[in-house]
């Protein structure tokens, strides 16, 4: 019914501008390698869904680089903003929108699948997220409707606890419990909530709702539930990657993880 690639946290910037203690990798080179790997997949891909942190910092010029990178994709790409993104530049440069929103959110029909994109960047203690009340009302109407289509939801921040101290206390959506109470109403037709932000391939199942995070094309964060894992640490064993998601007509969802080298 639908096959899409889930990517996240490309953090695109000129390579000489990226300097953090987390990694020595180059984000622009990683994004180019990501596109090459997606284009080389031996199957038809309907679209790519990017769950945010497209750019390294909210600088307008970085979105020109991102547009050049993703122009090489052989399929459409859809975006949601991350906490590092400039939402205006994202909408004008990459999404080609004239009707700008403070918190850009939207709905699409993708091959008969209802795809809902939610912005999680309402005011919060960074780098945590928050979904605005207007969006929650909009999402609730979608999740309580009698729409028969399979439903997928894309958002940037991690919604529910994943058992990792710093991801749960510092990074996640501040009103994630409210968000979860809304989306679980649609769990019978919900393919999954696809997110990024944690720079790690990870799935959490709660109340019948699958939360699926994609790896970054730049660097991976340590995501193991150990007591000493209380701050941002790089995971030197994890490779850059993405997910390939298949949604069948009966709502069955298959997620395959892919890695690549930069």
Shape: globular
- Annotated CATH architecture: 4-Layer Sandwich
The low-confidence runs, each spanning 5 or more residues with pLDDT under 50, are none
Content-based structural category: alpha/beta
Q: What is the assigned CATH homologous superfamily?
A: Metallo-dependent phosphatases
Number of helices: 6
CATH topology: Purple Acid Phosphatase, chain A, domain 2
The SSE string, one letter per element, is EHEHEHEEHEHHEEEEE
User: Fraction of residues in helices?
Assistant: 10-25%
What kind of sheet is the major sheet?
6 strands, mixed
- State the distance separating the first and last CA atoms: 32 Å
Number of strands: 11
Q: Going across the major beta sheet, what is the strand order?
A: 4-5-6-7-9-8
Whole-number count of domains: 1
Give me the Rg, rounded.
Answer: 17 Å
Approximate strand percentage? 15-25%
CATH top level label: Alpha Beta
**Mean pLDDT over the residues:** 94
